[in-house]
Amino acid sequence: MTSVVQVPLWLFVLILLFAGVTFASHFLFPSVRWFFRRRLERVVARLNTRLERPIQPFKLARRYDMIQRLFYDPQVMQAVADHAKAEGVPENVAAELARDYAREIVPSFSASAYFGVAIRLARFLSNALYRVRLGHYAGDGLGGIDPQATVIFVMNHRSNMDYVLVTHLAAERSALSYAVGEWAQVWPLSRLIRAMGAYFIRRKSRNELYRRVLARYVQLATEAGVTQAMFPEGGLSRTGALMTPKLGLLKYILDGFDPGKRDVVFVPVGLNYDRVLEDRNLIAAAANPGHRFNTGLGLIMRQALKQLWLRIRGGYHRFGYAAVSFGQPLSLAAYAPRDSEKATGALAEELMARIGAIVPVLPVPAVCRLLLERGPMTRGEIVDGIARMVEALPNAHVHIPRGSHDYAAEYGLRLLLERRLVVEENGLVRAVESERPVLAFYANSIRHLSPGAQTPLSAPAK
Fold it and tell me: Residue 427, exposed/middle/buried by CB under 10 A (0-12, 13-18, 19+)?
């Protein structure tokens, strides 16, 4: 027992290494995890005291546990069996594919990342790029939402700034869980987005197994009361106008809805901008469906850094106004029957109608619409045109800077002149012919508010 055993130095080091790893994994790591878990629980408890809608335990579960829960869900297991039978592959192969889908979809929410980094970054980006304004706010309807209901914000999709802007303005209400497309699945952006609680979706996937795994995740999150945000249009508007809604996510929610348990309440959100950072890329994509364009958050970050540099140099200026309106909520428990595809379509149309009704009318879209519909105008005629527009749209949420039609006209014109989208000659302001698609892009954002003007502008007459 006391005899000496000689081993090579490399083997001794290897033994020590394995011993260290074993000690850390069995004693040190669990203690460290417990310590940080306790700190996280205290942070979340403090956050929940000030949030209008507390963070649900479902969202705080470990990502590994959530993946396992989703994978072993009876409906997912049935989907695996159906896929294996339909494709003629072993069930273990189909199961591994379903597990990969679950890993891809499930987020990894971090309260510290969301409230410590994301909210501050969203506030900085929003205020660095725009003059942010809250338009219409249906306080009576929003304040009456059942505290136990699942709230889902549904909004029009104008820019990737939508994520940033709504996150900033909803910071005091709850932590939002977004449905994010394939553009965000790029490291390290994907890690940050997962930590913010967003879940990834393949918008154009036709794989039945994938769709059933995604549907079950959405249903589990909805059943657990997770506050969500989604874009019914399914993507960025390439014409500036509201688009026909996609039914996928809404159908998943309807299919899993049980009126005897937890209500689901949709809150319509309307967004608009004096300048959309991706406007020319989107317009090019509308003209050429095969056109690939970069509309990720990288573009937004570059613009924010550019604005920061301009502020340092003393040439700082923002891109005009960005406004968000919150409309009357829609309770799913009080809605029509939910058993058919037709009911899903009717729900989508109702939500888009509510969103469209509260899209803010801002200076640049208003001036663009006047110039395209009426042709060259004097400054005085533009001021008068905006005043008449406000009168003709009593239900629209018009944002008039400083409450002045004159200032709104001057502000909108200044932004358009700076971008060389319009010119002023002989006392008349007219559209630059080659820039008419850009002007139409902004005019389309509010054109639906006028009766009988549902078709987006594409090639406006002079």
Answer: exposed
Domain 104-358 has CATH 3.40.1130: yes
Contact 153, 191 (CB under 8 A): no
User: Comparing 249-253, 261-265, 396-400, which segment has the lowest mean pLDDT?
Assistant: 396-400
pLDDT tens column, 287-332: 876 655 555 556 666 766 776 676 666 666 788 999 999 999 999 9
Measured in whole angstroms, how far is the alpha carbon of residue 437 from the centre of its chain? 25
Place of tokens 């509309």: 295
Segments making up each domain of the chain, as ranges:
104-358, 361-447
CATH number of 361-447: 1.10.10.10
Rounded distance between C-alpha atoms, residue 422 and residue 418, angstroms? 9
- Whether residue 39 is predicted with pLDDT greater than 70 in this model: the reply is no
Q: Give the CB-side neighbour count of residue 375, counting CA atoms within 13 A.
A: 2
Q: Tell me the residue length of the chain.
A: 462
How are beta strands 264-273 and 330-331 bridged, if at all? antiparallel
The C-alpha angle 297, 120, 412, rounded to 5 degrees, equals: 65
Cα 347 to chain centroid distance, Å, stands at: 20
Which residue's entry shows tokens 């553009």?
183
Cβ–Cβ under 8 Å, residues 115 and 47: yes
The answer to whether 299 and 187 are in contact (CB under 8 A) is: no
109 near 60, Cβ under 8 Å?
A: yes
pLDDT in tens, 73-95: 999 999 999 999 999 999 999 99
Which H, E and C letters describe 388-456, residue by residue? HHHHHCCCCEECCHHHCHHHHHHHHHHHHHHCCCEEEECCEEEECHHHHHHHHHHHHHHHCCCCCCCCC
- 104-358 with 361-447: one CATH topology? no
Peptide bond into 188 cis (omega under 30): yes
